[in-house]
Amino acid sequence: MVLRFMPVSTYDIGQVEAYFSHMAEQGLFFKKLIGFAVFERGVGEKTKYHLHPFGKPFGKTRGKLDEELRLQLQSAGWEYISTMSKAFFVFKATNNETKEFPTNSLEWQKGIEKIRSTLRFAFFYSQIVILISLAMLAYHSFFTNYPVYYWVKYRLLIFAFAFFFFGYEAVLKYIHIKKLNHYLNFGSEYGEKVVSPPTSTFRILNGIQLFLHLFVVFVFIYSHLVSWEKSLTDYQGEKPTISLAAIEKNPNLQIVNFPDSSSFQKVHWQSFISYDWTELAPEVYIIQEEGVIETKDTLQVYSPAIDSEVYTLRFQFLVKPYLREAIEYQKDLLFFEHITCEALENTKFDQAYFCFSKNYQGLFASIGKKVICVDYFGDKDLTEFADEIYQAVAE
User: Fold this and answer.
1) Which of 367, 391, 257, 377 is nearest to 319 (CA)?
2) How many whole angstroms from its chain centre is CA 223?
3) d(CA 38, CA 285)
4) Containing domain of residue 188, as a range?
5) pTM of the entire structure?
6) What is the dihedral of CA 172, 177, 179, 184, to 10 degrees?
7) Domain end call among 56, 71, 93
8) Could you read off the pLDDT of 135-176 as tens digits, one per residue?
9) Which of 61, 90, 201, 332 lies 20 to 30 angstroms, CA to CA, from 259?
10) Both 205 and 282 in a single domain?
């Protein structure tokens, strides 16, 4: 099996047929198209190829060749090879005396028109996705106060790749439509049966296609494989932050731990730890603990809670803007409280900030490429535990 990039548009019928014939003379016989053109090695010989659009009488079911017709064509010297681009049946003939492929011009034209209509729909669909992706990117990059925060936390790089991917698809569909328009205007004999050398345009487009496909597949598969979420009672490993018990130091503290019925996956817990991987943050830990401490007054319950997010960013230059925007985002999130933020001096962190209000305390700090955001709701002084938090993150 030999793989080759298609050097021409797969909808440029004359050029594709000529390309397959050219390869057959070199001993490579087309078998199927899977992004790459797949060839089988053999003894080189002159071979004619024919691409015929889906449609009657070649198949009652789209993409499935009628078996009786296949046998008739085979007896006439035309061997069925495979389908291509979900639009064409591919045939070949090795006997030089084989007559031209029996084509009904009206049926052939109808088949081409159907393919063109499908491509037009796909082209307009690509344009809609491009506009949506562009709007999302523009809004979160230029019209919010937290562009870096959104790009890192909400994986906007995927939207960027969606924009480029569907942009590529739209360009390719446009080229295909232009080719089919020529065939509809000039008939099935349009185009010289000569293989043009691979153009830089198609080399670039094929390269973009391969890269985008591999990247998207890698992101989804890898992130799914490495990400996990566990209840804190089931988790036995080290946590990159301080625990609620270490802050409260109360033997009566009980960690709230039961399934959250609103969760789609039914695996989220009120007290949990999760790990994730993103394009701009290859390590993301989110730890949430909620506790209950019974008081002598049975009418009152003290319920401290701590939420920690630890990001290991891929690039150092993202650290400062991400830290700054994470603070601003939290202040806006708790807009109903007056939050004061100040720099923390004499800590081991590269930079650290303490934010507080009547009911809230937050520590935002960085070490190298790591950023930690700790939100604490309780009566203790979070700044007293800065060194312990540093130690947990640094390790």
Assistant:
1) 367
2) 10
3) 44
4) 105-225
5) 0.68
6) 170
7) 93
8) 877 887 888 888 999 888 887 777 777 677 777 777 777 777
9) 332
10) no
